[in-house]
Write a structure and sequence with these properties.
Bound molecules: CU-O-CU linkage, copper (II) ion
CATH topology of the largest domain: Immunoglobulin-like
Number of domains: 3
Shape: globular
CATH class of the largest domain: Mainly Beta
Strand content: 35-45%
Largest sheet: 7 strands, mixed
Number of helices: 4
Radius of gyration: 22 Å
């Protein structure tokens, strides 16, 4: 009896999407991806101007009033950076001096934060570096960190969710001239995938309340690089996809409909020590994963996201989505094997006696406090390696720390899966979980300008689930003011 019904389902599922996909059995790619015919948009590379001193100058403009075509026959009002929606991809190499010119053409103030970048706090683009309408902010820094997929997005206090949801986000790729040989032809075999969920109203406008509900907006429609129902033509045997979860709240478990395995080569803050073969990677908002996937000539593959099996399910609804159809060419260019050593380093064991800081995460507070722009919550000596313990007393969150790279030591007493053992700056914190991080802080000191740590579910961040830390000369901690002049309390 059981066997018979399975057989008939299998027969049916090959028929057509019109029958309605059956959620119980494996669905065939053809049923799922018939409508995936829009060419995957590749964000253009930003062209830097060369400075006389060898620096690279990038001009970025935050723009409102964009008119984007996502849904057939509909125009969506969007915000974008140098364009209607999302931003160009900024690319620079380790050792480069970069000078940014960020001009705010929005009708309201905003910021641009370099998520994943290790730089002086005044250049960070957090809520203390507001850019008024019409103004240009010009941070500059030297890139002193390993190759990674970073990104940028606004960070105005209490309004980040709206600004990102409307379309303000872009990639910042850091190259390392001494890095391993990985697929690196941008848009061809090195392909960014900026994954976002949206809610559209009947007119094709972004809808849904980013400031409501427990988690904020969880949309039912996926855009990848701002493309609805996207398809990508693979021309090489292997493709490196740089996955960025730029959604407000949704968590994805990314893999392939046919359950093929692939190699994870990088996490948020850089390459792994060696590739890790898996068939799913989980990324929560703000997290990145670089994966290398092999294709056979002429095949169609389906990149999708599958919610956790029920028994491990989180209280944050994940859902099942097709993300991208990949059509491999009839003849594929050979690709190099992924090197066995990627150049990433093994986690350093934290020294005995390392400072431990504990953060209790509740509804939308950290250690029972809401974000206060005028309060310095933590003072950290430059270069420290510390243990940060996250103790989640409620539903799912995640946790991002500006400026640093950290390693996940434990989630509920267990080491993380190998693909999450690399350098990171954002970590998923399941409901009621305890997470231990080994955090390596940088050496740019500034006792008066804080960096942020916060939940990257943007609704929570905006509600105040954020704290501030400064990095100071070792030995000066006790002299650092804990209240910043010129900032009103926020409640
Ligand atoms: Cu991606 Cu504090 O941000
Ligand atoms: Cu950040
Ligand atoms: Cu949260």
């Amino acid at each position: 009896m059981k066997r018979r019904s399975l057989l008939s389902l299998a027969a049916l599922s090959g028929l057509s999407a019109a029958v309605g996909a059956c959620s119980a059995g494996p669905r065939t790619p053809s049923a799922d991806v018939a409508g995936f015919t829009n060419q995957l948009r590749i964000p253009p590379l930003a062209r830097p101007e060369a400075g006389v001193d060898g620096s690279k100058r990038f001009a970025l403009e935050l723009r409102a009033g964009g008119r984007s075509r996502f849904l057939p026959g509909k125009t969506t009002e969007t915000w974008g950076i140098n364009g209607a929606y999302l931003g160009p991809t900024v690319r620079a190499a380790r050792g480069d001096r970069v000078r940014m010119a960020v001009t705010n053409r929005l009708p309201e103030s905003s910021t641009l934060h370099w998520h994943g970048m290790r730089l002086p706090a005044r250049m960070d683009g957090g809520p203390h570096q507001m850019i008024e309408p019409g103004a240009t902010w010009a941070p500059e820094w030297t890139i002193e960190q390993p190759a990674a997929t970073s990104w940028f997005h606004p960070h105005p206090h209490e309004r980040t969710a709206r600004h990102v949801y409307r379309g303000l986000a872009g990639l910042f790729l850091i190259d390392d001239p001494d890095g391993p040989r990985l697929p690196g032809d941008y848009g061809v075999d090195d392909v960014p995938l900026i994954i976002q969920d949206k809610q559209f109203d009947g007119d094709g406008q972004f809808s849904g309340n980013v400031d409501g509900g427990t988690f904020g907006l969880l949309g039912d429609t996926i855009l990848v690089n701002g493309t609805y129902l996207p398809a990508f033509q693979a021309q090489t045997e292997s493709v490196r996809f740089r996955l960025l979860n730029a959604s407000n709240a949704r968590v994805y478990r990314v893999g392939f409909a046919d359950r093929r395995s692939f190699q994870v080569v990088g996490s948020d803050a850089g390459l792994l020590e060696r590739p890790v073969t898996v068939d799913r990677v989980k990324i929560s908002p703000g997290e990145r994963a670089e994966i290398v996937v092999r294709f056979a000539a002429g095949e169609t593959a389906v990149l999708d996201s599958r919610g956790e099996p029920a028994e491990q399910a989180n209280d944050i609804e994940e859902g099942d989505f097709v993300l991208l159809k990949i059509v491999a060419g009839a003849a594929l260019k050979p690709s190099p094997e992924v090197p066995a050593a990627l150049g990433g380093t093994a986690p350093e064991p934290p020294p005995a006696g390392a400072r431990v800081r504990r953060f209790v995460l509740s509804g939308s507070e950290i250690n029972d406090r809401d974000m206060d722009m005028s309060r310095i919550d933590e003072v950290v000596p430059a270069g420290a390696l510390e243990i940060w313990e996250l103790d989640n007393t409620t539903y799912a969150h995640n946790f991002h720390i500006h400026e640093v790279a950290f390693r996940v030591l434990e989630v509920n007493g267990q080491p993380p899966p190998a693909y999450q053992a690399g350098p990171k700056d954002t970590v998923f914190v399941p409901k009621l979980a305890k997470v231990r991080l080994a955090v390596r802080f940088g050496r740019h000191t500034d006792p008066l300008t804080p960096y942020m740590y916060h939940c990257h579910l943007l609704r929570h961040e905006d509600k105040g689930m954020m704290g501030q830390f400064v990095i100071v000369e070792p030995g000066t901690e006790s002299r650092v003011p804990r209240t910043l002049a010129g900032h009103r309390h926020h409640n």
